[in-house]
């Protein structure tokens, strides 16, 4: 659903873009899909000029990973000074969530395995918990926001680690939303799941943050389009660092 590339041609009524513009976009609200050489998008959709300090590969990762991180953190009422825990902090949503939570002035703890500790430190995180050594739900610490970006925890596990008026955010929680709704209605804590909404103004915000040096993309591997199946097999192992990108060599003469 995420892509970046050059505008090849425009429709006769298009005014916002011209051929040759470098853009990044989300196809979420159009017809999904972006494993392709060409994609037709409405000019008023989620299409924005690419950050001038990012490659196409880096820019493509913003439209889902960073948008999802931003959407959930805003739902969690992120504020300066809030104590935030990001579980799965080494994934796509996670690496963006760490950087965005820091941008919003939060005190950020990330949970990852031993091999990703240095990666999280490179994102200027405040504290790292290695999940192979320590269970954050059992160490007595409490947080204003617990953001599980990889759906590896449950609400019941995290309840006692949430402060009063805290938020439990989970990107992969469809099955337990009823419990979450009941919990939100009967306590002073809130549970947020569901699907992130992609808004053009948020893409513009992410572009500006990137250009001012406050947001970067972590790329694990790139695969050519012909190896898309291998790319998915790698991602489905559940251990990528940041993002995996499919790239194309576009031959204009062809
Ligand atoms: N709700 C929405 O709107 C929305 C939008 C986008 C994505 N999603 C979903 O969000 C999820 C996250 O996607 P993603 O691309 O950011 O990452 P991902 O590829 O699903 O996860 C990769 C990361 O998870 C870490 N991880 C694996 N097991 C873990 C555990 N037990 N505890 C903590 N971390 C663990 C891995 O680190 P290690 O190798 O160190 O274990 C790896 O860095 C996906 O399920 C995706 O479908 C939802």
Report on this structure.
With 254 residues, the chain is an alpha/beta fold. Helix content is 28%, strand content 22%. The strands form three sheets. Strands 6-5-4-7-8-9 form a six-stranded parallel β-sheet. It has a three-stranded antiparallel β-sheet with strand order 1-2-3. Strands 10-11 form a two-stranded parallel sheet. The two termini are 26 Å apart. The model has no long low-confidence stretch (mean pLDDT 95). NADP nicotinamide-adenine-dinucleotide phosphate (NAP) binds next to helix 2, helix 3 and strand 5.
**Could you say how many structural domains there are in total?**
2
In round numbers, the mean pLDDT is 95
Give, in spatial order, the strands making up the sheet with the most strands.
6-5-4-7-8-9
Name the shape in a single word: globular
Q: Would you spell out the secondary-structure blueprint of this structure?
A:
Layout: E1 2-6, E2 22-26, E3 47-49, H1 56-60, H2 62-75, E4 83-87, H3 92-103, E5 107-112, H4 117-121, E6 127-130, E7 143-148, H5 155-158, E8 162-170, H6 177-186, E9 190-192, H7 200-211, E10 219-224, H8 228-236, E11 243-247
Parallel strand pairs: 4-5, 4-7, 5-6, 7-8, 8-9, 10-11
Antiparallel strand pairs: 1-2, 2-3
Bound molecules: NADP nicotinamide-adenine-dinucleotide phosphate.
Residues 64-65, 68, 87-88, 90-94, 111-113, 115-116, 131, 149-152, 171-172, 195-196, 235, 238-241 line the site of NADP nicotinamide-adenine-dinucleotide phosphate (NAP).
């Amino acid at each position: 659903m995420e892509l970046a590339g050059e505008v090849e041609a425009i429709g006769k009524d298009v005014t916002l873009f011209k051929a040759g513009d470098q853009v990044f976009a989300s196809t979420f609200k159009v017809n999904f899909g972006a494993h392709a050489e060409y994609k037709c998008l409405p000019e008023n959709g989620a299409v924005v000029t690419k950050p001038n300090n990012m490659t196409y590969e880096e820019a493509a990762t913003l439209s889902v990973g960073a948008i999802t991180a931003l959407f959930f953190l805003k739902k969690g009422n992120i504020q300066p000074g809030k104590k935030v825990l990001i579980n799965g902090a080494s994934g796509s949503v996670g690496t963006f969530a760490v950087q965005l939570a820091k941008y919003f002035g939060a005190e950020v703890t990330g949970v990852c395995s031993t091999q990703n500790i240095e990666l999280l430190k490179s994102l200027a995180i405040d504290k790292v918990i290695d999940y192979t050594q320590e269970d954050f739900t059992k160490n007595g610490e409490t947080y204003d926001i617990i953001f599980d970006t990889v759906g590896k925890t449950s609400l019941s596990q995290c309840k006692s680690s949430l402060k009063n008026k805290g938020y439990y955010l989970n990107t992969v929680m469809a099955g337990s939303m009823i419990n979450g709704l009941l919990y939100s209605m009967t306590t002073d804590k809130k549970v947020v799941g569901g699907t992130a909404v992609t808004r053009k103004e948020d893409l513009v915000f992410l572009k500006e943050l990137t250009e001012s040096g406050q947001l970067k993309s972590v790329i694990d591997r790139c695969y050519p389009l012909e190896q898309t199946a291998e790319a998915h097999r790698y991602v489905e192992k559940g251990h990528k660092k940041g993002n995996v990108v499919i790239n194309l060599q576009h031959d204009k003469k062809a």
